[in-house]
Specification:
alpha/beta, 4-stranded parallel β-sheet
Amino acid sequence: MATFFEGMDHHPKTEVSDLNPPGLAFPGREPYPVRDFPMANCYYTCNLLPTDLIIQTGHVPRWLGDHLRRPGAPARRGALSIHPMTCPYVTKLVAAADELLAGSDDCLVVPGGCDAARRMGDLLAAAYPDRVFVLPMPRSSGLEVAKTLAVDLARFEDWLRTRRPAETAPTGGTSPDAGNATQEPPDLDYPVPPRPGGVFVVAGPLTDDSLLRLIDRLGVHVSGLESCTSPGRWRRLAALGGASGGARSKDAPVAAAATPDYEALAVALLEIGMCPRRSTIARRDHLARRLDESRPTSIIYARQSFCDPGAYDSLLIAALAEERGLRYLEIEVDFPFDANGPLRTRVEAFLEAETLDDDLLGDDLFGDELFGDDLSEEEA
């Protein structure tokens, strides 16, 4: 796995000087003790989470997207299910969480960023009381919104501490792979460093770089990636331990850390998490900035089926592409992404057309050398 801080994008942070008004103070907490025993797993469904907060309470944060059920594996009797017209991301995560929670004493946090995620959280919380925490995720930002999220983060931390008291080591039923690892975030990275003049990819959550490698194999480079699991997103989220005084590499031990600054964490989460759930104006401004920075020649939007936020988001991207004269392709994808079959054919045809356009422009087919004196005679 790549080091969390390699190649991190720098973005200016929102000022937090006014985020500690009277009446919102949190009681001081003792620093978390060093743990010399295996920690329990705390799986999470959305990457928009301060994982260091989980680590400090004696849990290993693991992104649930890396623990899906094997394709074709028989479902256990009485397994949970969700409406089939739900995005494949939520559908697959429900099945994975049900299987993991049924066979261990681990816990799960579900950031409720969209309606489907909130339904997933309610379903799992009903099936596994006291082992699933639904964290409300706002769709806007601002001082009052940040204060509300800060309260929810403090409540989440208290819930984790209650589940695993500091003085008691985990016992019985905890997954054996918890070990002493610090965290397991998405580790998607660019197979080749992005550069201007290529394809800008917009996608939902991705488990690997297969889409980016497909584009590279077809002879076109990637100019940027906008996804909740993109390198610029998960690395910044993994580094949020600095806001609570406990930033560490993945191999560092769990040591005593300062009391988390919930207000600073809330502001950072809202600033980093500019995903499709956010308001149209803020999301559009974010996407426009990303496109202007990346300077691509085309855009591919990999949208999951039955994803309402993605459907609205694709309209924003299509409009931005038209404004900039960029070629645009929208594809409907599954989760995890499958780079074979008809999907590969569509991407290949789109990229071949782009390569052909570049070749034609390079040949100067409409220059004076081709038409010669005919153009001069018409003008005369």
